[in-house]
UniProtKB/TrEMBL annotation, chain A:
The keyword Endoplasmic reticulum does not apply. The chain crosses the membrane at residues 12-44, 64-85. It is found in: Cell membrane. It is a multi-pass membrane protein. The keyword RNA-binding does not apply. It comes from the Bacteria. InterPro entries: Cation_antiport_E (IPR002758). This is Na+/H+ antiporter subunit E. It comes from [Roseibacterium] beibuensis. Keywords: Cell membrane, Membrane, Transmembrane, Transmembrane helix. Its main location: membrane.
Length: 163, 143
């Protein structure tokens, strides 16, 4: 019964928080309206979310978030240097295929999003069976190390979070 | 508003301005569409991020309450920006690149732009191995 009423507790919680953030003031009325959204929207859209992704420890999620944030800042500066001070012909772009150990669709989505949001790398496509991901790297002398970085920094942590 | 707050806000605004500029400059300087794709990721991360942090500090100092809109903008940006980039990359690949131009996928199937997904393999579920459906077995179970 509870499972039917609240099929996705995390989604409901997110919706309540997003609603409170959108109105930007915390009042009882807004909280009740947000709770209403949090109940109705997951119920109506339940067919589109067949699986419930299991999340690991919240601290791990926070750790991942902070690491990505830090990497974004560092990579921003690196790429800015490349764009400003490197002559165009000496920029060596690479396609890097990365075999994936992640299997859940949610985890792969987060990984692909992370790769794109950290400047210098863009995730382009998946292999047809979802077992490896193709990454375009703006400039690197050592494609192997970029692959190992992504695997050890992001994929390992995502594996702990999602599996 | 105190001098320290003003200084902090200015610093963040300048940072975001610089990265916004570098992002746009990259669009002009880089020659290849895929390389150009890297430039706007900077504008959307540090460029927008700087303005948002500045805005949060401003509203906290000026109005005395924490504004959450900026966090939501970050959330929505992080949800939408990778998808746009991915679409642009895929469109570019489909139009301009052939299968031979890309490295091997290192798995049993090629890249999804050129190859069809394996029909007999279900999409991997959470934490489980892909299930290989045997058509003969299925037919047998039904009869």
């Amino acid at each position: 019964m509870l499972r039917r009423l609240v099929p996705h507790p995390l989604l409901s919680l997110t919706l309540v928080l997003v609603w409170l953030g959108l109105v930007n003031t915390f009042t009882l009325g807004n909280l009740i309206l947000g709770l209403g959204f949090g109940l109705v929207i997951p119920m109506v859209t339940a067919p589109y979310w067949p699986n419930r992704p299991k999340l690991g420890h919240p601290l791990k999620v926070l750790e991942y978030f902070l690491i990505v944030l830090w990497d974004i800042i560092v990579a921003n500066v690196q790429v800015a240097m490349i764009i400003l001070f490197k002559r165009e012909p000496s920029i060596r772009s690479h396609w890097i295929p990365i075999p994936l150990e992640l299997t859940s669709a949610e985890a792969i989505t987060v990984l692909a999003g992370t790769i794109t949001m950290t400047p210098g790398t863009v995730s382009a496509t998946l292999s047809a069976d979802g077992r490896s991901i193709l990454v375009h790297c703006l400039h690197t002398d050592d494609p192997e190390s970029v692959r190992d970085d992504i695997k050890s920094r992001y994929e390992r942590r995502l594996k702990e979070i999602f599996q | 508003m105190s001098f320290a707050a003003e200084l902090l806000i200015s610093i963040f605004l300048v940072i975001s301005g610089v990265f916004g500029f570098v992002g746009s400059f990259g669009l002009v300087k880089l020659k290849n569409s895929l390389q150009r794709l890297h430039a706007p990721t900077k504008a959307t991360t540090l460029g927008v991020g700087g303005v948002l942090v500045a805005s949060m500090i401003y509203f906290y100092v000026e109005k005395g309450h924490l504004s959450v809109h900026e966090l939501l903008i970050t959330l929505f940006l992080f949800l939408t920006a990778p998808i746009t980039a991915n679409f642009i990359a895929k469109t570019y690949m489909a139009r301009n690149l052939r299968k031979q131009d890309l490295p091997e996928s290192q798995s049993d199937y090629g890249w999804s732009i050129y190859d069809d997904p394996p029909e007999s393999v279900q999409l991997p579920e959470n934490g489980t191995e892909p299930v290989v459906l045997d058509p003969a077995k299925d037919g047998g179970a039904q009869s």
